[in-house]
Amino acid sequence: MSEMSVAHPPVLMARARARIGRLNGPQRLVVFSVFLGLIGAALWLLPLHDVHRVTVMGAIPWWVELAVCYVTSLLYVQVRVHREVSTLSLTEIPVAIGLFLVDPRQLLACYVVGVLLASWTRQRRIRWVKDFANAALDVVYIGVAVLVFNAVGPVASDPLAVHSIVAFAAAMIAAGWFVYPIALNAGTTIAQGRLNVGEVARAYLFQLIATTTNASLGVVALMILATRPVLAFALVPPVILVLAGQIAAGESQRRADRNEFLYRTTEILHSTRQVGERAGELLNGITKMFGVERAELVVIPEVRGPAVRFTSTGDDEHAQATTSDLTFAEQEVLNELRTNAILSGSMARDQSLGLALAERSAGAGTVVVLRGLEGPQGMLLLLNPTRGVKFGTHEQNLLSTVAGLISVALENGQLAEAIKAMSVEKAELARRAFYDPLTQIANRSLFIETVATSLSQLASSQRPVAVMFIDLDGFKEINDNFGHAVGDRVLSAVAARLRVQVRKLDLAARLGGDEFGMLLDGMRHFSDAAVVAGRIIESLRRPIPMGDAMITIGASVGVAVVEDAADAPEPEELMRRADMAMYLAKRQGKNRFVVFDEAARTPVIARTPEPVHQVAS
Q1: For a tag site, which of 20, 132, 521, 581 has the least CB within 10 Å?
Q2: Measured between alpha carbons, how far is residue 348 from residues 246, 352, 473 in Å?
Q3: 362: helix, strand or coil
Q4: 288 closest CA partner among 386, 397, 366, 356
């Protein structure tokens, strides 16, 4: 009977931490929200299972409570301290009224729905992860408030009695001072993946002040409803005044934010830092200012060549830089931008903007052209907006101004030289990755990749493809007699002669040591490979001048040809066949080539005149 192995708690904790560490911010927030939701469900299904309204004074309709929750959620004030923004809402007021005048379950439903509706109204979109997190938090918040309020127990006949106010204060302290702000800050920290003690402390202080102030206003509203309900209309002018002040303050703050953003953009564009850092900070600021998930800057070089792309998700200080040719969709977008400075909308497959968005897996976005004196210099793309598909007038004007600043920087050469230097550096890195540093011809990696491409196109081209494996004869003696420096010069001379023997479609490569490869792509006849192999042997047979000395070297060549796409092997298998043919050429006397007979699976020898191998001085 086998025993079941049980992991120890430390092991389980380590595995859990490892799994959580692999989650991104939204995924971690979902896990935390599920945890909160389970706590909220436990509260309402266990201790609050049979909860009822305690007071006996008249109740208000549920739709009135819902309307109050919705309106007070819209009434919020933003407090800015050192670029940190905290939002203070008035949502404790309907809680104060609802604890006395609404059934607890109706209070829960009205509060959750009212807050969600207000959030959708402000954001103009549904944010599934954040909305789910807020709903789970609200369920716990109202559950704790109702639990404490009923546990302390207000005076049923007098909601304004001292004991009733004490019950309400205890509920607000427990739910508003501790449960809600602690859970909110914990969720924010988990989603961001970092803990900033200063930010958390400042946010907690603002939430504490807001809860206390709004709870006091809630008591005042309760007094009006309990004594003189008709006086509730006296609250309408202050509410309208708060709304007007909020709109004016918000517009003033947005104007200040736009000015600060433009100043910072100009400072970044004139900075002397590396272009990757500048582009990263620039795109990072753009994503935050315009409320998009990521931004991309595409710069078209002055001379013909690939475009330079900088991409940022709003979290990284350094932008990801790549180079590639403009796609068909991007060229179509640039054509449309000749008459329209800005294109904005959702993904549509029959439109050029939709195709450009589809290439980036974006559902919606906005693109603005970077105009130069002699034509477009590129474009700026803002992808997946979080505050609606299309920008308003102010945002479009701001985006046009930013595009103008970038265009001026490109015209003045402030970014062009850095981008050019980066392109040259990337090209040099690519050359080092795929070309042999000694002979300056392709290396083994590029050769195998090119062979694979040729074989994949064999069905459409219907032209034979040949691979040659070339091994130098007598190269070890050259290294022993003349040294490795001379040997390296011989390898370079061999590479130069091989380049002469190939067309633009073909490829010569150094596979390693004194082994070379040759790819013949798109041959007209099977026999073309034998002709080229003969020319290679004759070319390498000629003496190589090395100062006062003349060095003679030969080569053994193996050839493998593929004519039918149905019989095409893997690139490594085709090279193995050429290698087998080359070794047979060496066994047959060197300085000759052998063609691998694919039908018979055995090499068939094609002989050439065999010279004497020697090193002449």
Answers
A1: 20
A2: 37, 8, 62
A3: coil
A4: 386
Cα–Cα distance, 580 to 612 (Å, whole number): 24
Where in the chain do CATH 3.30.450.40 domains reside? 257-422
Query: Who has greater pLDDT, 402 or 312?
Result: 402
- For CA atoms 23, 25, 30, 35, the dihedral sign is positive
CA angle 134, 138, 143 (to 5 degrees): 155
Q: Are 377 and 299 in contact (CB under 8 A)?
A: yes
Domain 23-227 in CATH 1.25.40 = no
Q: What's the pLDDT tens digit per position in 355-376?
A: 888 888 888 888 998 887 777 8
Which is more confidently placed, 7 or 557? 557
Q: Is 389 exposed, middle or buried (0-12, 13-18, 19+ CB in 10 A)?
A: middle
Residue 519 CA to residue 392 CA, distance in Å, equals 57
Q: Are 147 and 44 in contact (CB under 8 A)?
A: no
The DSSP 8-state label assigned to residue 394 in this structure reads H
What CATH architecture does domain 435-616 belong to? 2-Layer Sandwich (3.30)
Largest CA distance in the chain: 121
Fold adopted by 257-422: Beta-Lactamase (3.30.450)
What's the pLDDT band for 614 if we cut at 50, 70, 90? very low
Cα–Cα distance measured from residue 515 to residue 579, given in angstroms and rounded to the nearest whole number: 10
Cβ partners under 8 Å of residue 494, min gap 6: 439, 472, 516, 540, 544, 553
Q: Which residues contact 392 (CB under 8 A, 6 or more apart)?
A: none
Could you tell me how far CA 215 lies from the centroid of its own chain? 43
The residues of the chain that CATH labels 3.30.70.270 are 435-616
CA distance 170 to 172: 5
Dist CA 100 CA 156 (whole Å): 9
Instruction: Give the range among 3-7, 16-20, 286-290, 428-432 with minimum mean pLDDT.
Output: 3-7
